Amino acid sequence: MTPPAPGDPPQGHLLTLVPTPIGHLDDITLRALAVLRSADVVAAEDTRRSRILLDRHAIATPLVRLDAHTIAARGPAILARHRHVAYVTDAGTPGISDPGAELARLAIGLGVRVEALPGPTAFVPALVLSGLPVHRFAFEGFLPRKGRERRARLAAIAERDHATALYESAVRLPATLADLAEACGPERPAAVARELSKRFETVERGSLAGLGETFAAAPARGEIVVVVGPASGGGGDARAAAAGAGRAGTGHEGDAGADPRVGTLEPDAAEALARAGAAEGLWGRDLRAALEAAGVDRDAAYRLAVRHGRRAGSGPKPDPEADTDDG
Ligand code: SAM
After folding, report:
1. pLDDT for 232-273, tens place per residue?
2. 196 CB less than 6 Å from ligand 1?
3. Would 17 disulfide with which of 8, 94, 120, 269, CB 3.0-4.6 Å?
């Protein structure tokens, strides 16, 4: 082993990447708290934001700023000065679509030992809540905003035979759903998970075209993960992909999404899905679209949407064909 050059961090230094909540402040592990408490310094992407978390847990470890713009310039000195640096980003797992990966690479290159604690990250609950088959999946992070690279990434999502999770801002969501619908076809099943683990968490499930309509009519707010279902091998995108979604909802997720012969759900499963959708506040056109995306054929989806409509006792059944803003 070559001896460390002058200025290299001394042996024995440690960088711990510490996941922090993506919404609910209680979503932090005991080990994460212990590391934040015992480290020599907490380096944070945004010290104001991390101060709130540290204060909530009465942690008095010194806090320094280390963001995407300062890692290259300030990272080596911070890693050299402190034997144990804990690194936190704005939310979730450092290294997932944030500057944590750059800091980890820097530390590894400098010979600093790096450990990454398991913890919250936004795409995992989004995948699970999508109801789509996610026994295999790809994570795209943020798509490039325009140009050839964006088109190439959209084409890759379109061809993929497994689910894709991607991050998007609320303001760019309608444009991205429109681009995804163009690339993957309007009927590709998808889900939009919003404000996960926060007070106004919602998950909308449906076809890319249906979700596009929904969010064009009523722009979303907050933080968003989009999950796109897999391309099917021949049974029609919505049906083959959603066969797995239906099973996920009934506790039987397996490899069904890969089986193009599974076209529609069993009547009981469709009924259960309609009930679950209605319980989540879906009704009218949205309930029908979600059922169709899950593999229920059009007529049955219409009948189920009429039957389950609004929650019992809260007004007239809506017309599932009606093109209303709130349905
Ligand atoms: N490191 C984070 C992680 O582990 O998920 C991701 C950081 S990235 C800069 C921020 C993006 O993550 C947001 O724009 C949004 O797409 C997604 N995100 C973060 N928190 C979320 C939440 N509570 N609900 C939905 N999406 C969220």
Report:
1. 833 333 333 343 333 233 222 223 333 222 235 567 667 777
2. yes
3. 94
